[in-house]
Amino acid sequence: MSIPTPHITAKLGDFAKTVLMPGDPLRAKFIAENYLENAVLVNNVRGINGYTGYYKGKRVSVMASGMGQPSMGIYSYELFKFYDVENIIRVGSCGGFANDLHVHDIVLAMGACTNSNFASQYGLNGTFSAIASYPLLASAVKKCEELNVNFKVGNILSSDVFYSQQDESSKWTKLGVLAVEMESYALYCNALSLGKNALCICTVSDSFVYPEENTT
């Protein structure tokens, strides 16, 4: 496959080496307009907004991933494989499982569990553990400590199901899983299989323990 891909119309070089990936295209637009200087729209296929600009003099891109692992799997793979992107940082939301997590706390996903069959493509006779890139994780931990924000580092669950017929949150919690979202396992798998770097940084938007949710 060559560029443009079926899902991205940008030219080679339009993306920076580091891409921030929220799920929502409007969040990508918000980040570009409020945090990047001289941001340029480089992709808008199917409404998936992608921008490249500068943050404190460093060239950075931001593009939406859409919802779920199939969507994240497509966009992160194409960015890594065809657009020479080296680092993808998912910036999204999650539902808190842990009793010491509250709305607006930060979860840095050291690893991602899943109920998906995403890794079956590798033909492994076992279960693949999808983990973050340590340099990105260590940098994020340092920055959280500097900013004095409430954060936790650990395992999360990347689920294929939003409206589940079974509440299994307590089972995951017993195994130390901090929160649930829907994209990171696919992102980590792509990064690891292609020799790239990835990290998921999630803000707790609601809790499975407390009657809390973010309404903004």
> Over all CA atoms, what is the radius of gyration?
17 Å
- Contiguous runs where pLDDT drops below 50 for at least 5 residues: none
Cα(first) to Cα(last) distance is: 40 Å
Structural class based on helices, strands and sheet pairing: alpha/beta
Share of helical residues: 25-40%
If helices are DSSP runs of H or I spanning 4 or more residues, what is the number of helices?
5
Largest sheet: 5 strands, mixed, barrel
According to DSSP, the number of beta strands is: 10
Strand and helix map with partners:
Elements: E1 18-21, H1 25-35, E2 37-43, E3 50-55, E4 58-63, H2 69-82, E5 87-96, E6 106-114, E7 130-131, H3 134-147, E8 151-158, H4 169-174, E9 179-181, H5 184-194, E10 197-207
Parallel strand pairs: 1-4, 1-5, 5-10, 6-8, 8-9
Antiparallel strand pairs: 2-3, 3-4, 5-9, 6-7, 6-10
Helix pairs in contact: 2-5
